[in-house]
Amino acid sequence: MDDYPFPLYMWRIDNSNWRFQTDRKEIAHKLKRRKGFREITLASHPPLWIFDKSFERKDRALRCLESLTGSIAKWDEAKEIFYAEVK
What are the residue ranges spanned by the domains of the chain? Predict the structure, then answer.
């Protein structure tokens, strides 16, 4: 998928709310099982899941992103989002 080359993206909505977006079914299942994650949308063509989660601090949100993927989170300044590859 050219628009979404990485399996998991994260961006801030406001001071404490973050969005997580994935097109990978296995990551969506992980997010559904984690406490505090709320699925807010599902697009079926192509499959795309977006979840909402509250974190008081940015470092905690980044740590969550990294633990989900097993890799270091990176910042895309042009799109103003964090992303990570799955190991």
Answer: 8-84
